[in-house]
Amino acid sequence: MEQIHYDRLQETLYHEVMDNGLQVYVLPKPGFLKTYATFATKYGSVDNHFHVEGAEETTVPDGIAHFLEHKMFEEPEGDIFATFASNGASANAFTSFDQTVYLFSATENIETNLSTLVDFVQHPYFTDENVEKEKGIIGQEINMYADNPDWRVYFGLIEAMYSKHPVHIDIAGTIESIATITKETLYTCYNSFYHPSNMLLFVVGGVEPEKVFALIRSNQNSKSYGKQGEIKRIFEAEPEAVAKKRLESRLAVSMPKCLFGFKEKASGLTGEAAGRRDLTTKLMLDLLLGSSTALYQKLYDEELISDSFGHEFNSSPQYAFSAIGGDTKDPDLLLKRIREEIDLVLKSGFAEKDFERARKKKIGGYLRMLNSPENIAHEFTRYQFGGGDLFEVLPVYESLTLAETNQRLRDHVDWEQLAVSLVVSP
Amino acid sequence: MTNNVFQHGSTAGMRIHVLPTKAFKTFAISLYAGVPLEEGTVTSTALVPFVLRRGTAAYPETTQFRERLEELYGAGFGFDVYKRGDYQIVQFRMDTINDSFVQSKESLLGESFAFLGEVLTRPALENGSFRSSYVATERETVRKKLEAIVNDKIRYAAERCIEVMCEDEPFRLHPLGQRSDLDGITPDNLYKSYQDWLNGAILDLYVVGDTTPEEVEQLVKRHFGRNSSETGQYSSRFTPVTVSGVRTVEEKLDVNQGKLNMGLRTSITYKDDNYASALMYNGILGGYPHSKLFVNVREKESLAYYASSRYDGHKGIGTIQSGIESQNYGKAVDIIRKQLDELKAGNISDLELSQTKAMIRNLLSEIQDSAFELISFDFNRQLSGKERTALELLDQVEGTGAEDVKAAAETFHLDTIYFLTGQKEE
């Protein structure tokens, strides 16, 4: 067991790699009653074409990672939610572009609940019948998202930007794509991506690290895993240019939703370099578009944006893009005005005092995030899978420079790389 | 479960509740201002905090106002307007980093109080009234928010169900008010409404963090110069509504998925001794993934992705929500009504009881780990006048038997079935 102390954050993290390759991290929160645990595999919606050493190269139906997540909850003796409920745990799971996360939170029976979590995720149970039954449920989940304009405008933007990279495929797939899923394809995905060496267990809360490690050690030693071959994820080359400049979908909305962003070329960046690029970009977007900026206030007073106006940045070694926008009465005017205003900032660059203030805000936001066991677990796992360390973010923020942030602005904002997604009423 | 207890006091016309603790990295501050929910004042009361967040005497420009928050290490500042029973509540929240984590020259708690006091009592003015430009834009902001309710179809259907069900009660009103009132609001009459609101509202101030009641009292005296020395008191405005038959309403909108909502009435509210039985009733019916609704509507019949229930103990209302194919309406209604009948007939297994108790126990324990959850829980006491700690509530939940749940079930009467369905002919 390795112990890492972060003095400034007043946190101590414990780490151990199990013999089968499973990464286990424990962050004790003295005084907390709750324990929150996530068991994550580095496998998400984008991993639809892969080659595991020693097996066939495979392409699988869209939405299968998410389908698999649903199906993991079923065990021969019934629904695993019932087992968690009997032990007072609230359980859930989610699938993103690049990971699938199973989780629970509980204030009692922690060891039992941890065993339940690890055991059910390590025990697939798929039958023809239970796979068919799930298609109805997920079909309704897909329909629910189809009615959600925020989701539609967000995926519309990614679809406008990317033509080849599977990030543009809806995480849940489509009714048609999930229709082709069988228990065999589910097992193929399971066996490719749920090997312990591709997974990470994070436990945060009122726990004693030694006890957690002892439990997981004996749990893992009782299961036999063969050696996992290397996983090769295959991505077709993505053109540098956006797929479509503009994409419109129709749904009853009170006002158009407009989301736009810049597609960057694949950077191949990983680890610290990627982490630094991400933090710089997010700081840069906040300096450019945050609610305290002159640009934001002008557009708000012109009634072109509302409280819904926001921005985010998403990245992996193969893709990186911003998503900016919200509700607006006049998307074209908004885009025109945004461009005028951003071009002014491109010329002037950011001011030192604004940069310092935005940095302070980011540091405060980071520290506040550490109050939440949920956020710690999710962010920590995300950082680890990307090769970074959540608890080393503070020194990175402190070392960012104005020049670097101005450079990031100029690199990111390339009007040739702009894509726009709209949701408007029929 | 430990028992975090607030220390209660009052000064300057407001009740003060302080929980000294070192468990968090921040100071959490909440200010609740409650007034009766009434047609004549609902819109102006809702609009006031929107105008207050635009600027204060010391930071009259909105960008200055927001820059100030960023200087306080990105102090979280926000507000919500909602209804609790027949009261309209405006809640301001601040979440500020504990100084010990950053190299700050100022006391961040003191500065946060100064800021919040300024927001509430010294708004930016022109000619002795609110700034007209702020009133004009924020009026539009509230209008857009009211119009945007339809964008989220799940929420829209839930709100329409309540509107229909409570058409003769103030509870039908949306907490943000009525669009038709907005045009009549001017800087002058809104400023007058603000003064009346500030003088008449029941104010509760909460602080959770590394501080003391004495320090908070001093800060309140210094930064909240409120004229009134009287602290108000919430009074129970609850009158049970007798249900005479189920009303069914179907409305059409451009949706992919039908949204089925039901409203139930109960005579049990938060202050009642059998509140725990009503909580158990809701838990067994549809509060969790092991509940009757999830198991029967989703897992057994694959009719829906979500099927759940909620219980509002301040209003004495239960609600049920699910998203289904429109053609399955009859089937879904039958299955849901069957679950209501099962509970009334007392068909409740020991397992359902023990699982639901474990989940409620977990929920009540988890509150202890979140500053804002602790605050919300204690505020129930101010609202209802009922003193009951989380531990006491837990004891009552543990003591609930099947007969108690059956007795609670007999007080829940189905009042309204609301169905939002697509425009296309089936």
UniProtKB/TrEMBL annotation, chain A:
MF terms in GO: metal ion binding
Residue ranges annotated for the Peptidase M16 N-terminal domain, each copy included: 57-174
Domain of life of the source: Bacteria
Coiled coil: none
Pfam family, one: Peptidase_M16_C
Entry-linked PANTHER family: METALLOPROTEASE (PTHR11851), ZINC-DEPENDENT PROTEASE (PTHR11851:SF134)
Protein name: Peptidase M16
Biological source species: Paenibacillus albidus
TrEMBL record, chain B:
Location of the Peptidase M16 C-terminal domain: 185-358
Keyword Zinc in record: no
InterPro entries recorded: Metalloenz_LuxS/M16, MPP/UQCRC_Complex, Peptidase_M16_C
Organism (species): Paenibacillus albidus
GO molecular function: metal ion binding; metallopeptidase activity
SUPFAM superfamilies, sorted: LuxS/MPP-like metallohydrolase (SSF63411)
Keywords: Hydrolase, Metalloprotease, Protease
UniProt keyword Glycosyltransferase present: no
Protein's recorded name: Inactive metalloprotease YmfF
